[in-house]
Design goal:
alpha+beta, two-stranded antiparallel sheet
Length: 327
C-alpha cells in the first residue's frame, strides 16, 4: 500500500485535511505547529534518501519507507477517502474496518451498487485495491468469517498457504520456559478464533505436527499442548501477582543483565546465591530488588539478515549496478 501512494496527491490531500483541523483551545490544538508540520511532511516525503551497500538512492515515488511517520501518513491519507465512502454508502455498508491494507465490511445492497462502491474505492490517486470480493465467506487478517446457511456467523483460524511456520527449533538458545508461554498463547488465540471446537482441535493438531517437523520431541510438545488446553478449558486464572508496591528508584534496584545460554548457570541458582550469600551486601547498599534479565544470544538471522550489507573488496554494490545513479 505505502509504495503505491502518489506523493503529490497525498501531500495535497493531507494538507487540505490539516488546514481544516479545528486549531483552538477547545480541541487542544491551539499550539499545533501547522505550517511546520506541512513543511516537514513535504521535506520527508519528497527527499527520502536510502542506502544500499555503497550506493545512495533518492526515492521518487511512494511513501518514504523506513520513516517513523510512514504509517501515520498512509493512515490519514486513505482515511480522508474513507470518510467520503462511509457517507455515500452509509445505507449499504453496515460495518467497515480496515487494518493497513486489509479491509472488512458488512454489505447490504445490490450487486450494481457494490460495483459502484468498488469503482469509488479505486478512484483515489494511484492507489488501487485488488481482490475486493463479496460473499458468505471472507478472510480478514488471521480469521475466516462465515455466514452459515442457517444465517449464523461462524469464525475459524485462517492461515496463508505460503506460511512456512518457522517456529523456534529446539536447538535455539531460548529459555525453556518460553515454550510454555508460546504454546499457551497460540492455543488461547485458536480458542478465541474458532467457533467450533472441532476447528480448534484441528488447529491444535496442526500446531503439534508443525513443531514436531521443526525437531521437537513429540511427547514434550504433546504435554505442553495438553497443559495449555487444560488451563484454557478449565478457565484456570493466572498466578496472582504481588500487590503493587511503591515505585523504587534506580539505586534501589540491581539488574543482572546476562545473555542466555542453555548450558549456563540456571536462574534459580543465581537468585539463591544472591538471596543468601549476597543479601547482607545488598542490604548495606540499600538495594530492595534484584532482577535477572536475560537477552537473546545472536542467532543466524542476526548474521544473515543484517541491516547493513557486508561488502567484500571488489564486490561492492556499485560493482553490480549498471544503471544511472540517482541523485
Amino acid at each position: 500500500m505505502y509504495t503505491n501512494i502518489n506523493t503529490t496527491h497525498a501531500i495535497a490531500v493531507i494538507s487540505e485535511w490539516l488546514d481544516n483541523l479545528p486549531l483552538d483551545e477547545e480541541h487542544g490544538l491551539a499550539d499545533f505547529p501547522l505550517e511546520a508540520v506541512k513543511s516537514a511532511m513535504n521535506f520527508v516525503m519528497k527527499y527520502n534518501i536510502f542506502e544500499f551497500g555503497d550506493l545512495y538512492f533518492h526515492q521518487l515515488i511512494g511513501t518514504a519507507m523506513g520513516t517513523s511517520c510512514a504509517c501515520l501518513w498512509a493512515t490519514i491519507y486513505f482515511a480522508v477517502h474513507e470518510e467520503f465512502l462511509l457517507t455515500k454508502y452509509s445505507i449499504e455498508l453496515l460495518r467497515y474496518k480496515r487494518f493497513i491494507d486489509d479491509m472488512f465490511g458488512i454489505w447490504n445492497g445490490s450487486d450494481e451498487r457494490f460495483a459502484e462502491f468498488q469503482a469509488d474505492i479505486n478512484n483515489f490517486g494511484d492507489l488501487t485495491w485488488g481482490d475486493i470480493t463479496i460473499g458468505p465467506v471472507v478472510n480478514f487478517l488471521d480469521s475466516t468469517i462465515i455466514i452459515t446457511p442457517s444465517h449464523t456467523i461462524r469464525y475459524k483460524t485462517y492461515q496463508k498457504a505460503m506460511n512456512l511456520y518457522q517456529y523456534i527449533p529446539p536447538t535455539s538458545a531460548h529459555p525453556p520456559y518460553m515454550m510454555r508461554g508460546i504454546i499457551y498463547s497460540l492455543l488461547k488465540k485458536y480458542k478465541r478464533q474458532n467457533s467450533l471446537n472441532s476447528d480448534y482441535i484441528n488447529q491444535c493438531n496442526l500446531l503439534f505436527q508443525r513443531y514436531v517437523a521443526r525437531g521437537w520431541e513429540k511427547e514434550y510438545i504433546k504435554q505442553l499442548i495438553l497443559a495449555a488446553d487444560a488451563r484454557l478449558t478449565n478457565n484456570i486464572p493466572p498466578v496472582p501477582t504481588a500487590p503493587n508496591d511503591p515505585p523504587l528508584t534506580n539505586k534501589e534496584v540491581l539488574i543482572l543483565h546476562w545473555t542466555f545460554h542453555p548450558h549456563d548457570i540456571p536462574r534459580q541458582v543465581l537468585r539463591h546465591h544472591f538471596n543468601t550469600i549476597f543479601q547482607p551486601v545488598l542490604d548495606n547498599l540499600r538495594i530492595k530488588k534484584f532482577i535477572i534479565a536475560y537477552s537473546r544470544a545472536p542467532n543466524l538471522r542476526s548474521e544473515l539478515t543484517r541491516a547493513k550489507l557486508h561488502q567484500a573488496p571488489g564486490k561492492e554494490a556499485s560493482t553490480y549496478y549498471d544503471g544511472e545513479l540517482a541523485t
